[in-house]
From TrEMBL:
Record-stated family: Belongs to the acyl-CoA dehydrogenase family.
Pfam families: Acyl-CoA_dh_1, Acyl-CoA_dh_M, Acyl-CoA_dh_N
Keyword Secreted: no
Entry keyword set: FAD, Flavoprotein, Oxidoreductase
Protein name in the entry: Medium-chain specific acyl-CoA dehydrogenase, mitochondrial
Residue ranges of every copy of the Acyl-CoA dehydrogenase/oxidase C-terminal domain listed in the record: 277-425
Gene3D superfamilies: Acyl-CoA dehydrogenase/oxidase, N-terminal domain, Butyryl-CoA Dehydrogenase, subunit A, domain 2, Butyryl-CoA Dehydrogenase, subunit A, domain 3
Domain Acyl-CoA dehydrogenase/oxidase N-terminal: 47-155
Catalytic activity from the UniProt record: a medium-chain 2,3-saturated fatty acyl-CoA + oxidized [electron-transfer flavoprotein] + H(+) = a medium-chain (2E)-enoyl-CoA + reduced [electron-transfer flavoprotein]
Organism in which the protein naturally occurs: Hypsibius exemplaris
Gene Ontology terms for molecular function: flavin adenine dinucleotide binding; medium-chain fatty acyl-CoA dehydrogenase activity
Cofactor: FAD
Acyl-CoA oxidase/dehydrogenase middle domain segment(s): 169-265
Keyword Flavoprotein: yes
Length: 433
């Protein structure tokens, strides 16, 4: 099997193998299978292709990413070398349809990959997978020409400086985060149909490395969000686009995060996504697609915290016993395992709903909220189990605790997920579902 031969593969061969596995896994999603005899067809087994892909990514994450995680955390240096290797392995931009050069990978396949990357380092994982949020609006609402131009370039063979292209999602502003309807960046239409954008975005993942941006801007004073905003594709080298300084964050420091200023930025009419006024719906639809990958990042981090805690508890002795032999510590480990398993199942369900072609707003918010909260609790418990050592940067768990916090904040806070869930519950009740 490919997984067992991974160590003998060159980067170029890994790329071919990984993309082939992705195509096979996606094809399997689309096949119709008869339910197992005497059952309803429910299975918790991954396919052979998914297992092989998981093994391939796990090897890369644990042998290439994990040893370099501390360096990037301490320096904040963007991990271009690892991003390039991930691109060569086919781990970037894998949602892009095959006709535009992508692997057309299903959401479930992507979350399997994402968990393995985040286990090694969620900051580097974000640097590798951050494109997904910017790509989602174009995949969902772009014209063929837009997809060919902006998705196609993301999958094109690397030339020039040898770096994969980065794209960024520009919605958050200094005055609004989860309140997307509060966006103040404005776009004014000119006589030729083009628009001039003015405003400032904040906390933009990949902002200083991006080749192009998805930008949400207000094009109408209409108070209804569904009519007030328009989505634009903006080339990063357009005059008037100015990235700010890299922010030094609490965690996930390998990820590039900046503010972006748009000053009299002219965008041609062919770079409008869908239609004027359709931006809010597109932006929200993108979140449904990308919240499962965010949730799986939290799951990967939580699994790492659990693994480190079990290992440490079997090595460290207090009062003549290994830590795991103390009931209080054993109960903590058990609760951590329960949290990881439940968060993973919630994430898989949210991803599976996407692959079935159904709306997953309800399940995506459950997964994102629950996995984020679980990751924070488990990381904090890991520090507690490590005791004084856990508070020291020579041990891995303090970084996990710092990295975990952002999962409760970006792509909609845990509190906002509960607002969404409440709305979904009432909506389905009214519809009689």
């Amino acid at each position: 099997m490919l997984a067992s031969k991974a160590s003998a593969l060159t980067p170029r061969m890994w790329n071919v193998g990984a993309r082939a596995l992705a195509a096979q896994a996606q094809a399997q999603h689309q096949e119709k299978h008869e339910p197992a005899a005497g059952g309803a067809g429910l299975s918790f087994d991954l396919s052979d292709e998914q297992k092989a892909y998981q093994d391939l990514v796990r090897k890369f994450a644990r042998e290439e990413i994990a040893p370099k995680a501390a360096h990037h955390d301490k320096t904040g240096e963007f991990p271009w070398e690892l991003v390039r290797k991930a691109f060569d392995l086919g781990l970037m931009n894998n949602h892009i349809p095959a006709k535009y050069g992508g692997a057309a990978m299903g959401s479930l396949d992507s979350v399997i990959i994402g968990e393995e990357l985040a286990w090694a380092c969620s900051g580097i994982s974000t640097a590798i997978g951050g494109n997904n949020l910017a790509l989602a609006p174009v995949i969902l609402a772009g014209t063929h020409e837009q997809k060919q131009k902006y998705l196609g370039r993301m999958t094109a063979p690397i030339t020039g400086d040898g770096k994969p292209l980065i794209a960024s999602y520009c919605v958050t502003e200094p005055g609004c985060g989860s309140d997307v309807a509060g966006v103040q960046t404005k776009a004014r239409r000119l006589k030729d149909g083009s628009f001039v954008i003015n405003g400032q975005k904040m906390w933009i993942t990949g902002g200083g490395k991006a080749n192009w941006y998805f930008v949400l801007a207000r094009t109408s004073e209409d108070p209804k969000p569904n009519q007030a905003f328009t989505g634009f594709i903006v080339e990063a080298n357009t005059p008037g686009v100015t990235p700010g300084r890299k922010e030094w964050n609490m965690g996930q420091r390998a990820s590039d995060t900046r503010g972006i200023t748009f000053e009299d930025v002219v965008v041609p009419k062919e770079n409008i996504l869908a239609a004027e006024g359709a931006g809010f719906k597109i932006a929200m639809g993108a979140f449904d697609q990308t919240r499962p990958p965010v949730a799986t990042g939290a799951v990967g981090l939580a699994q790492r915290a659990l693994d480190e805690s079990v290992k440490y508890s079997m090595e460290r002795k207090t009062f003549g016993k290994y830590l795991y032999e103390h009931q209080s510590v054993g109960n903590m480990l058990a609760d951590m395992a329960i949290g990881v398993q439940n968060a993973r199942l919630a994430t898989y369900r949210a991803a599976w709903e996407i692959d079935q072609g159904r709306s997953n707003t309800f399940y995506a918010s459950i997964a994102k909220c629950y996995a984020a909260d679980v990751a924070n609790k488990i990381a904090a418990d890991a520090v507690q189990i490590f005791g004084g050592n856990g508070f020291n940067s020579e041990y891995p768990v303090e970084k996990l605790m710092r990295d975990a916090k952002i999962f409760q904040i970006y792509e909609g806070t845990s509190q906002i997920q509960k607002v969404i869930l409440n709305r979904e519950l009432v909506k389905h009740r009214k519809l009689g579902n």
